[in-house]
Amino acid sequence: MREPENSLSATLRSLRKAAGLSGAAAAKRAGLTQSKVSRTETGAFMPTVQQVEALCLAYDAPASVRRRLVRMAHELSETRISAQVELERGGWLLQERIGRVEESAERIRSVGALMIQGLLQTESYMRALFGDSLAAEDLDRTVAARVSRQQLLDTDRHFTFVLAEGAVRWNMGGSAVMIAQLDRIIEESRRDNIDIGVVPWTTPVFVPLLHSFEIYDSRAVLFGTQTATALVTDATEVGSYENHWAELDSYVSFGDEAREIIARARQDYMTLS
């Protein structure tokens, strides 16, 4: 069996083994198929909250563990939130939920089409990005929640960020904001657990990049549009994004090449300041 890539799958597998149950016995106790139990443990299937509860009951999991796993399953449940609802509820709530989804993953792959990804953003870039869409108090709380998410970069999780060069050259907030932002990206690119790549504008490409997206392990995808933010867990949809990631990969420059592209953009911003 393939080793699980995320804490939800790994914990459920450990609980089954601790209970001394085979996959077939666990499936019978939980009222699931054996294939679902197996695919859940390898991360190929995203169980519902009810299925996680059933497995925890079958394994006689401690209450604290059950609550933690159920919370993970809830955060990873498929959803679509309109931008208007997000603003009315408070933008920080969505940031906190995204943070919890990120915490459940061991590997995060992220594509930035026209803006820098949240985990890499400086505070000044965030404030320019949110602009006047949030009241002052809401803005402070939302920025604080997004900054808090970045603590995950200090863990042993692995991150791959891919940026279209257009995102690097989208002059968000002005040259001073962008210079500091690009300095941050170059700094983060030197971490052992972070790979940052750029698709140069000079590289001919033969695939579209319609919007930014993030893949969590191989179980869920988050993406945003002008009107909504969506988290999808359907295996077919997730697979489509993984295929798109593979298509993009051949056009990406990593390492020193990526840093050189970013440094050239930084120099251009310097001439504007």
From TrEMBL:
PROSITE patterns: HTH_CROC1
Taxonomic superkingdom: Bacteria
InterPro entries the record matches: Cro/C1-type_HTH (IPR001387), DUF5753 (IPR043917), Lambda_DNA-bd_dom_sf (IPR010982)
Residues covered by the HTH cro/C1-type domain: 12-66
Pfam family, one: HTH_31
Gene Ontology MF term list: DNA binding
UniProt-recorded name of the protein: Helix-turn-helix protein
Naturally occurring in which organism (per UniProt): Tamaricihabitans halophyticus
